[in-house]
Amino acid sequence: MIGLFWNLLLAIAWVVLSGSVTAMNLLAGFCFGYIALMVLQNQVPALKGYSRRIPRLIAFLAFFLKELVKSNLRVAYDVATPVWHMKPGVIAFPLQARTDMEIMFVSSVISLTPGTLSLDVSDDRRVLFIHAMFLQDEEQLRNDLRELEHRILKVMR
Amino acid sequence: MKTNTLILHTAALAIMPLQLMFSVFLLLRGHDEPGGGFIGGLVAASAFVLYAFAFGAESTRKLLRVSPRDILAAGLLFGLASTIPAFWTGQAMLTALWWEVPLPGEGYLKLSTVLIFDIGVYLAVLGTLMTFVISLMESDE
Amino acid sequence: MNPELVLPILIPLTAGALSLAFWRSITLQRVLAVVATGLLLAAGIWLMSSTIEQGFLVVEMGSWPAPFSIVLVSDVLGAIMIVLTGIIGLAIAIYSLASTPKGHEKFGYYPLMHLLLAGVAGAFLTGDIFNLFVWFEVMLLASFALLTLGGERAQMEGAIKYVTLNLFSSAIFLSAVGLLYGMVGTLNMADIAQKLNSVEDPGMVTVVSLMFMVSFGIKAAAFPLFFWLPASYHTPQVAVSALFAGLLTKVGVYALYRVFTLIFTQDVAYTHTILLWAAALTMLTGVLGAAAQFEFRRILSFHIVSQIGYMLLGLALFTPLALIGGVFYIMHHIIVKTNLFLVSGITYRLLGSYELKNLGGVYRQRPYLALLFLIPALSLAGIPPLSGFFAKFIVVKASLEASEYVISAIALLVGLLTLYSMIKIWAEVFWKKVPDHVTDVGRLNGEIKNTHNWAYYVPVVGLAACTLIIGLYGQPIYVLAETAADQLMNPQLYIEAVLGGTPK
Amino acid sequence: MSEIFVSILLLAGASFMVLAAIGIVRLPDLPTRMHASTKAGAMGAILTMAGVALHFSDSAVAARAIAFIVFILLTAPIAAHVIGRAGYFTGISLWSGTTKDELRERYDPDTHKLYSGLETKTDRAVPDNNKDGSG
Amino acid sequence: MMLLAVLSGFLLAVAVPALYRVAGKHIGWVLALLPALLTAYFVSLIPAVSGGETLLIRNQWMPGLGVSLDFMVDGLALVFALLISGIGTFILIYAGSYLQGHKDLGRFYVIMMSFMASMLGLVLSDNLITFFVFWELTSITSYMLIGFNHEDAEARKCALQGLFVTAGGGLVLMAGLILLIFITGSYSFSEILASDLAIHDHGYYTAAAVCILIGAFTKSAQVPFHFWLPNAMAAPTPVSAYLHSATMVKAGVYLLARLNSSMDGDALWSNSLMFFGAATMLTGAYLAFSSTGIKKVLAYSTVMALGTLTMLIGIGTEKAIIAFVCVLVAHSLYKGALFMLAGALDHETGAKDITKMGGLWRSMPRTAVITGLAALSLAGLPPLFGFVAKELMFESVINSPVWPWGLLTAAVASSILVVAVAGLVFLKPFFGPVRTTPKQPHDAPVAMLIGPAVLTLLALIFGVVPFVPAIFVLDATVSSVYGTGVTTALALWHGVNVPLMLSGASLLAGSLLFITWQRLHPTLYAVNTAASRFGPEAGYFRFMLGITQVASWQTRVLQNGVLGIYLLILVLVTFGLTGYTLFTRHGFQLDFDFSNGYFYEFGIALLIVAATVFASVTRSRLGSVASVGVLGFGVALIFIHFSAPDLGITQLLVETLTVILLVLVLFKLPPFVNLSSPWERYRDLSVAIFAGATMTLLMLAVLDIQYFDSISSYYIENSYGLAFGKNIVNVILVDFRQLDTLGEIFVLGLAAMGVYSMVKLRAEDQHKP
Amino acid sequence: MLGIAINIVYLMLSLALLFAFIRLTRGPSLADRVVALELIASVVVGYVGVHAIDTGVSSFLDVAIVISLTAFLAAIGFARFLERGGVKDE
Amino acid sequence: METLMAYVVGLLFTASIYMMLRRSIVKLVIGLIILSNAANLLIFVVAGLTRGAPPLIPEGASEVVGAVADPLPQALILTAIVIAFSVLAFAVVLIRRAYEVVGTDDLDKMKDTDT
Ligand code: NA
Ligand code: NA
């Protein structure tokens, strides 16, 4: 089931990449995706229920884009102005995400957002350590991060 | 210091198939667009390098199943094999031969010694780079 | 379609790839080593006979028309070089069965050997200047790997110099190809030659030709570009040294012969005079270098340099007789020098050292080995009626004929000093008593039997036989050299063969 | 019309690049530089590619641009994470204005264990608060 | 038949090991059959040759080179052939006994047979090159013979000396012969001799003559090359006997005689011969007189004889040539005998020095008798052939067209000395008080005496009835040396004439000298020791030392082990040559027209420059690596910007992987430290700037030149139509120029194998048990 | 319009390259240099994109894709160097 | 632009040679990298620079539109890049092994084998 998901994804990606939408090409993509996954089969953890995620994904993307622009501007402002407004620090952020894939996505998205950078996950995978640039209002930041995580998890679960 | 992170591991597993797939893509369309066996092979190798950085040399060996050396040998033999059909047809070595295999539906699948050769290049590049990286990493571990 | 022109490249390439594929089966690799080099020799002989019959053999790779495709071309010189490659390859392959340490066999000795031969053969046959670069690199990488195989300290130190200086040479070669292409827009050597013939003011061509000269001069180990050779040739295991000694520098010499007869003949008075002095100084510095050495292989290594001078002299004088002499010298030297290294390997096996002070007594205990040393050694020194005599004779005669008296005198003096070196080895290794401090003389006295003993001697005897044949039955060899020189002096024939659509 | 959009996208992308570049030069320590550079750099690249897709308005080009964006989104944070992490753990000096460090106190440099701080008491054998530096 | 005659020695040499196993200690007798047969064969040629015929035998060898196994038998060749095979017969027999039980006897005979064959080949060759082949073969085989006792360092040294001098001379001779070939256009002695070409008018003549003379002088131990010959005594006595009497040293004389009729008539040729011959004669005689080792005495007397022969050729009158032939034969006979006898003395008494022997005639009567006769011949006393020869010599010296008085003085002085020498050789050991010798002396076995006996007997016969040799070969021999037909009449007794009076005077003075020898000897010894510091032998040693010193100095300077210096030289040579050539053949022209570039292209260029400079100057290794990465990006941008997307991609990928490899490897290596001195850095920087500037100038020059359009239009036109690909670069790589790519993947594979074995196969692992 | 924009973008990208390179030279830590290198890769991507538009050759996009898929490996390599105890201040 | 690049290439040669002349083996390797870049750029520049016309036949077309850049030097450089990379990989590992075996990174201390 999971294999099939990835496989199809890869096949579609293939078609998209090659830019020629034919049955043959899809089949070829499927085959190559299959080969790619075959190499990986022992390592890929379980994934399921992907079909419901597309609308959530779109919603998430919109949210993410907004965050992205917002925080980018904030960083830009600080960089561009002579005085530092920032108040950086490393915080421990307790995670709702559980599987490897979830944690990876959460941390990646956090990293992608300017102003926050995932440094590491605790050994028990319950806490993500984040370097944040603007710790003026730490609670607000934690709330934002929690919302982000929540939206990601909704897409992934 | 502390090594091996969950994030890198997971990301490697996610990124690697994309790289591999893209490498095959580059290989196959190299005749018409930028790409080809060499570039494809390099991208494929980067996929495995990523894996090796995340999981270590030993796991990469297991993932590859065959020794990088054998991939290399296969690549070289493919490269040489592409020269042979020309002999049968009595032409000079390395003369390209093209076969059009009709496919169900419309279109033809273009097979050629050139493709065989490009696959050889791809495998040789992959095998070579994996030999470099794995043996160097193993010597450190 | 001439398969014999392709096979000398294809056979070692395939053997190399197969040996790599059979990495774990040493036995299979050993069998393949002998079979493939034997086939290479057979292909070489086939090539030789076809070339003699047809004058030139040309194959356009990929069936594309000539200046656009890479062509393989064989003239008599090329065919000679291929036959020699086959001979040396086979000799080394057999010798390796006995001499190669297990560890080396397990780590790719045989595939590297095959690919080295492939690179050498490719360089001899290609008619394309960039393709020549590629084969040079194949050869070079194989030699790098063989040189470092084993990982001894001396190998590493030697290899750093070898690698660096050769890479510099490659970079110059590559740049020169680029500059040449910028001017003539083609890579096929015949095409370049033909086009340059019609150039009015070839000053820049001469400039670029000097880059080729330097680059090939480095590969050929000419003065003052030879440093990499004495720094490294004595460091790998002996079969590798022997293989290098026989073939590698000669590829550089061959390349000089090729381009400075075919392409760069615009300003012979200038370019070939430079070559002439390089040749003289190469002879002299090489032989003096050898005089200062007291290690078997180091002496031999410096003599490679010195002998390269004679071969360059043949080219530099640029008369028909001189080219005959040069070609003859190449044939003679490849066989003789390889053989000497092989003999040094046997004495090493017997006494465990290459240092003259640790060697001795071989004449007493192994008279036939002593004879097997004397044949190539005296031949190298130019003692008649061995091959080296005729080689030197022709070259000296050519230089006297060209009124280059100083050069002739140097050539003769170097001959004497070469004899001095060979006699030094003879006196120290063979005549002298085993020094008292050498305790492990068991093998010398024949106590230890090696099951592959024959593999040490078969190639040495075979090569000695070649030396004797060239000397005693030299007429066919001379005729070959004469034909080769004749073709070299008439580049128009080559150009017509490649571009003029001769029957294939 | 599309020219204007393309221009805007390109200029926006380039602006992000410049922002990242200025940030990387100006900002005082590694993590803060990374806030500017990796994200803004990626952002700039994404916007540029969007411009490319729009400019060519060709499905194949668009598909490749999308693929590029996906790839960048996957790889950029990983690179950032790995470098930031490596920099942090090798002890690069943080800006003097750094206010807190909740990681340092939970990291045991001897055993290389990184605690979440949420473990039950028994999980945590030796408290190592005293091992951290000034923070 | 002639070919077989010459080569049979080599063939038999090859068979010696097998024969030795069969024949055992009789090997000497068995092998002697061959030279005996050869002697018979050569004797059978006498009638034809003495009839004035020159036998020419032609065999192909390397016609392309003008080398053939052509043989010529005229009087001169035949006399030599007879001496070589005849004396050789006895030497072989003698050696079997002398070296009986020697562990290397088999090897000895192998070399000896080869030597004999080489010598025969030398004197019989008609082809100049073949002649030279045999000439060099005698050098090398005599080397093996001189160094026969090879575990003795002294023997090795002496052998090397002999070889070095003769082979060195041989090489000069080669040049001379080649010049002679140029002059005459012929490779054949017989043709050269028969032609009436004015050789000395040719521009090459002087060079050729000098070269040939040097070659002959080294071989025949003429002053100043005489020093090697006495040292050749390190060889076993049979070898010395053979070398001195009939072979090796006579080769030079043979050559002079052979070419005389063509070269004669020129002052350079004959005056050199006379001068050096006389000097050698005198020097040899003096040194013989002042030595004590019996073999050394004999050796120097050989030098004297060789000088005499050379001088006689130089005089060149008919008389002189007759004298030449007689001295030649006489010397061969008595010297062969005396050496074998000296060996017998040594063999039976264990003593080598004449001061250590005395009164041996009682225990070795037969040896004494034969020695006495041979010594008479040496002294030039009747009724032996030596007397006939000496009389002729005096006569021709007196009648010499040039320097008669000088030559005569030398001849008489030598003659006096040689009388004393003969006394030393014969009287010292056999008479006077009996001295104890290391071995109990008794007469030598028959195998060791038969040779001396026969040779002395021949000397006696020839002396008593000198018309016998005259009838058979003398005329023909003299004719071949002199050039025109000559009829001679020899007689023991010519009546009382000037030569006879000179002989008598010499005998008298010589006897006096002999008597005072004991008293003179310490002084002579001191003089010789002092002189030896300046003599030619000292020169030889200085030369050898000089070679070694120059060699090691040169090697220290050039091959100094410092990679930086090597590279520096390479760079200087490369760019010096190209730069100079550019300057002279094309000219420099700087071009600063950058107007056709866009500002961002300058930006890329600037990035490349900055990255390069930073990578070179930074003291941070990884900073340098990262900067090289940036350089790679910059180059990739250039590729991309100038229409090479494939190159751009490849460059980026390779750059990334390079950085990864460097990083993988580097952390085991230490950080940068500045190791060079500022001076070295400035030096290197200037060289590097010179190189870079030259490259720029080259590029600028080439940019202006495009002789022809690129062949690429073919690829562009046919990429799709014929090769079915739209990416033309890729089509070139995998189709038009596929062979390059095939080679390229093998390069990759080789790098992989190299890296793999370097990482995995470690020297330290191999040394583990 | 687009032409002007493209030129401005080229200028901005050139500036970005310059700044990033300054950081690369300054360090002070290896991680800083690596970050700079990553940024340069991104700028190159931007450059490639603009160039594709400038020349109208969409094939250049592949360069960008390859960079996106592989350039980050260098960073991972450097990080590995640091993790394995390499000198950080280089 | 070729003119400017000629100067850049000259600088690359200068830098590479200077680095190769240093005594540190790491600098030697960096010199080698720069050298291969220099040679590749040289070919590229000397063959002539063309803006914005890669030698590709557009989608749907069967021949190139207008003048395109010379594809041959590109193919050559591609080969050269790969070869240089192979060589470099070997050289990098070589210097590491040399350092391990010899125990120094100073090239001047690696002269035992010569004389
Ligand atoms: Na600010
Ligand atoms: Na040009």
Would you kindly provide a written description of the structure presented here, covering whatever features stand out?
Chain G: It is a multi-pass membrane protein. Chain G: It comes from Marinobacter adhaerens (strain DSM 23420 / HP15). Chain G: The chain crosses the membrane at residues 6-21, 28-49, 75-95. Chain G: It is found in: Cell membrane. Chain G: Keywords: Cell membrane, Membrane, Oxidoreductase, Transmembrane, Transmembrane helix, Ubiquinone. Chain C: The chain crosses the membrane at residues 6-23, 30-48, 68-95, 107-126, 132-150, 162-184, 204-226, 238-257, 269-296, 308-332, 338-356, 368-393, 405-423, 454-473. The complex is a heteroheptamer. Helices cover 61% and strands 11% of the residues of chain A. By secondary structure, chain A is mainly alpha-helical. Chain A folds into 2 domains: 2-47, no CATH class; 67-156, Alpha-Beta Plaits, CATH 3.30.70. In chain A, a hairpin with a 5-residue loop joins strand 2 and strand 3 (127-132). In chain A, helix 1 packs across helix 2 (23-40). The longest helix of chain A is centred in the middle third of the chain and has 28 residues, at 53-80. Mean pLDDT of chain A is 78; it is low at 46-51. Chain C is mostly helical and 504 residues long. Chain C has a domain at 266-493. Chain C is 76% helix and 2% strand. Chain C contains 21 helices and 2 strands. Chain C has helices at residues 3-21, 26-54, 76-99, 102-106, 109-125, 129-148, 153-184, 189-197, 203-220, 228-232, 238-262, 268-291, 296-317, 320-351, 362-365, 367-380, 387-401, 405-431, 453-472, 475-489, 491-499, and strands spanning 57-60, 71-74. In chain C, strands 1-2 form a two-stranded antiparallel sheet. The model of chain C has no long low-confidence stretch (mean pLDDT 92). Chain F has one domain (1-89). In chain F, helix 1 (2-26) runs antiparallel to helix 2, helix 2 packs antiparallel against helix 3 (61-70) and helix 2 (30-55) packs antiparallel against helix 4 (72-83). The radius of gyration of chain F is 16 Å and the shape is elongated. The model of chain F has no long low-confidence stretch (mean pLDDT 88). Chain G has helices at 2-20, 25-46, 71-102. At the D-F interface, helix 1, helix 2 and helix 3 of D face helix 1, helix 2, helix 3 and helix 4 of F. Bound molecules: sodium ion (2 copies).
Keywords:
heteroheptamer, B: 141 residues, mainly alpha, two-stranded antiparallel ribbon, 6 helices, 2 strands, 70% helix, elongated, G: 115 residues, Helix Hairpins, 3 helices, binds sodium ion, MrpF/PhaF-like (chain F)
The CATH class designation of chain G is Mainly Alpha
CATH fold node name of chain G: Helix Hairpins
End-to-end span of chain G in angstroms?
A: 49 Å
User: What's the helix-strand series of chain A?
Assistant: HHHEHEEH
Multimer state: heteroheptamer
Number of domains of chain A: 2
Distance between the termini of chain A: 15 Å
Computed CA radius of gyration of chain A, to the nearest angstrom: 19 Å
Topology of chain G as a string of helices (H) and strands (E): HHH
Tertiary shape of chain A: elongated
**Integer count of domains of chain G:** 1
- Proper CATH architecture of the largest domain in chain A: 2-Layer Sandwich
- The tally of strands of chain A reads 3
Give the helix proportion of chain G (percent range). 55-70%
Given as residue ranges, the uncertain stretches of chain G (5+ residues, pLDDT < 50) are none
Structural class computed from helices and strand pairing of chain A: mainly alpha
Subcellular location (chain C): Cell membrane; Membrane
Transmembrane segments (chain C): 6-23, 30-48, 68-95, 107-126, 132-150, 162-184, 204-226, 238-257, 269-296, 308-332, 338-356, 368-393, 405-423, 454-473
GO molecular function (chain C): NADH dehydrogenase (ubiquinone) activity
Main location (chain C): membrane
